[in-house]
Design goal:
Impact, YigZ family protein, 217 residues, five-stranded antiparallel beta sheet, 37% strand, Ribosomal Protein S5, domain 2, alpha+beta, Alpha-Beta Plaits, UPF0029_Impact_C
């Protein structure tokens, strides 16, 4: 009887709290985004931003929680219905970024933007902040350890870097490179390491672990 393999739970979130400001028609839209894993954390973050920007006309909010954004909520906070919170949440849904809460603080500049203008401004504010914010991938990786001679190290290291894999090297009598590999790629990577080293690399598959990997901007 074959043992079923559990699917990999993988999601992208922001690495840390991040803020970006956007100005349109003299209105300031200050977007603050924060990683959160529970609704309690999201609400605490929203409360903190409300306190910081207590004098703003609006502090509109949205959050998405869970690997597949199972929990979602948004608020227009006094803006016309559907012009702030919902567009903000739609941006989160479109990007797939989760375990995150976002507050867009608006200081009114005296020029009305209209419903369409508000939707565009709130959407753009969140999209641009998400684009600029440092992000990280939460996923599962299999540890593949390759033991090689020093003469092979330069070529193997370049290969691992070209594959954009995270790794750690330990130097002793030989070099042990522990590579974090997507489970579906283990067989391919192992074969390519063997081919590159003409069979000289000793490859050992270690445990799979949950990891947090920085994503390139």
């Amino acid at each position: 009887m074959c043992e079923s393999i559990s699917p990999i739970v993988e999601f992208t979130t922001v690495a840390k709290e991040f803020r970006h400001e956007y100005v349109v028609e003299k209105s300031r839209f200050i977007t603050t985004i924060c990683p959160c894993s529970t609704e309690e954390e999201a609400q605490a973050f929203i409360g903190r931003i409300n306190k910081e920007f207590w004098d703003a006309r609006h502090n509109c909010t949205a959050f998405a929680l869970g690997p597949k954004q199972e929990q979602q909520r948004s608020s227009d906070n006094g803006e016309p219905s559907g012009t702030a919170g919902k567009p903000m949440l739609e941006v989160l849904k479109k990007t797939g970024i989760t375990n995150v809460a976002v507050v867009v603080t608006r200081y009114f500049g005296g020029i009305k933007l209209g419903a369409g203008g508000l939707i565009r401004a709130y959407s753009h504010s969140v999209a641009e902040t998400l684009r600029l914010a440092p992000k990280e991938l939460h996923t599962t990786r299999t540890q593949l350890q390759a033991t090689i001679d020093y003469a092979l190290y330069g070529a193997i290291e370049r290969y691992v870097q070209d594959q954009k894999l995270h790794y750690e090297s330990n130097f002793g009598e030989h070099v042990d490179i522990t590579i974090l590999v997507p489970p579906t790629d283990v067989e391919r990577i192992q074969k390519e390491l063997q081919d590159m080293s003409h069979g000289a690399a000793t490859c050992t598959i270690l445990d799979s672990i949950e990891v947090v990997l920085p994503l390139e901007q």
